[in-house]
Amino acid sequence: MSVTRLCIRSLNLNLVRSIGAVFIASLKKQFLIILFFIFAINFAKAANEKQNIDLVLGGGGSSFKYTSELLTRALRTEGYVTKITYAGSFPTNRLEQMLQSGEINAHVLGKTTIRSSKLLLVDVAMTSNLFGNRILFIRRGTQHEYDNVYTLEDFQKLGKTVGMGVKWSEVPIWIQNQLPVQTIDGNWRRLYSMIASGKRNVDYLTRAPQEAVEDHVSQPELIVESNLVLLYKHDHVLYVSPKNPALHKILLDALIKAKESGLIQEVAKEFYPEVYLPPISLDKRRVIHLQLPD
Fold first, then answer.
1. DSSP labels for 168-229?
2. For residue 249, what are the CA distances in angstroms to 43, 75, 175, 244?
């Protein structure tokens, strides 16, 4: 075989090898590109799944609106987009049952041992302690009976009986402070007419300032007591349905951060400016401090 033929054969072999190497490199590159796109699609899908949270909430009036606003903003800072479905306004007992069954998945309530044993607790103050301020609704014509109250002892001496729902978290607080309590089951709003009648051994009920803003308009049979606010450190908290532990973890993380960043206080001030205006005038009232049970 001539030297020329050997050189040609060697060149052809090297050419085939080069082409093969380029082809293999091209396949590897295409394979890596395909893997990259698969990863990107899965990553985008996972990110999209994280961003969507479905909340089913109950309650009425400003309470539902406030809870919706706070949860939406707290979750937004964590990269979630919320979709909120309104389940309607119901008595507290019914809302607790709906939480247990999963008909609603979150609701703001007073913290109690019984509730915390049945529901998933997010132990974060939800209104920057607005719920720990209690405004009195009293029978018309009785304001003068409260005018000389300056201390807890003065209030105790009045001997007035408060009306409350049987499961309200405030009940043991009133008992702790030696203040008479009468509880009712079912729709607690019956208390307004019971107090107004003057015949049911109930003299007043208490509402948080933001609730009083609404109720002094919607419940004209009673009036807002002018001077007092009963204060204790016992804000309402969020409870999550035991049917949804994954949501509980998400909300717990988001609300802890919302408290630390000042978001909860910010939302409360933005949402309830009326609590500092007449007839509530929260910052101008005489404060009666109540002790919490041990």
1. -TTHHHHHHTT--EEEE-S-TTHHHHHHHHT-SS--EEEE-HHHHHHHHHH-TTEEE-SSEE
2. 22, 12, 34, 9
Distance CA 203, CA 196 (A): 8
| Helix (H/G/I), strand (E/B), else coil: 162 | strand
Neighbours of 245 (CB within 10 A): 11
- Residue 121, phi then psi, degrees to nearest 5: -90, 130
For the residues 264-279, what does the mean pLDDT come to?
95
Alpha-helical regions (H) of the chain:
3-51, 61-76, 92-101, 113-118, 152-158, 171-176, 190-197, 209-218, 245-261, 263-271
Cα dihedral 126→130→131→135 (10° resolution): -170
Domain ranges of the chain: 130-234+276-289
Q: How many CB atoms lie within 10 A of CB 183?
A: 16
Give the C-alpha separation, 281 to 136, whole Å. Answer: 13
List the CATH code of the domain at 130-234+276-289: 3.40.190.10
pTM of the model: 0.73
State the Rg of the chain over Cα.
Answer: 32
pLDDT of residue 20: 54
Q: Where does 77-170 have alpha helices with state H?
A: 92-101, 113-118, 152-158
Buried-exposed string 133-146: b where 16+ CB fall within 10 A, e elsewhere: bbbbbbbeebeeeb
Is-contact 140 117, C-beta < 8 A?
no
Tell me the pLDDT band of 240, cut-offs 50, 70 and 90.
very high
37: Cα separation from own chain's centroid: 39
3-class DSSP state of 286 = strand
pLDDT in tens, 34-79: 655 555 555 444 444 458 999 999 998 788 999 999 999 999 999 9
- Give the CA angle between residues 34, 36, 38 to the nearest 5°: 70
